Amino acid sequence: MVRLSFAGHAFDALSAGALYWPARRALLLADLHFEKASWYAQFGQMLPPYDTLETLAGIEGVVARTRPAEIWCLGDSFHDVGGCDRLSEEAQARLRALTGGADWTWITGNHDRVVADHCGGRVVDEAVIDGLVLRHEADPAEPRPELSGHFHPKLRLKLRGRGVSRRCFVATATKLILPAFGSLTGGLDAHHPEIVRAVGGGAEALIALEDRLLRFPLAA
Description:
This protein is of the alpha/beta class. It is 19% helix and 32% strand. The chain contains four helices and 17 strands. Helix 2 (51-66) packs parallel to helix 3 (89-100). The model has no long low-confidence stretch (mean pLDDT 89).
């Protein structure tokens, strides 16, 4: 984990794409997209059906590492409104163990706005904690400091003639977009006009390594 300062608060950025808030013992995750593969399977596109279990394993790993008292999921935790119903018994049991082990909050997203049963935890549209707004999609008109997801940002670079893509955070003084944590989520280039529009000028792409945070300016 590496220290990341935002809006007067100290966070720890994890290379897996999660964000830990030591002062609250809070773990923040964005865009899990549980049951994405099974959603595609309904329409004849057969993908390996292991994405949910792989994402759960990732969450279990960062939970074991940070031992949070609170967990906040910033929307699109399920890929569609029926995703929770398609969870296997194993996935349900592991998810319920996670939601039962911390004060767990699901923030709704555009994919899962009307999911009724989230296997434990409480559901809100957005939240304000310690002066920070937590929501799914960044609001360009929001003047308060804001944490969000939605865009699945990735930074694409050329290194030694080869293309490299890494999930990244996108930050300004008042906006912080988390990368997608889900295992089958893809990503939008951090330079994309929609990301720049959402956060405004002066943005940086932040790549968290185990021992340092790499910063790359994004053109407005």
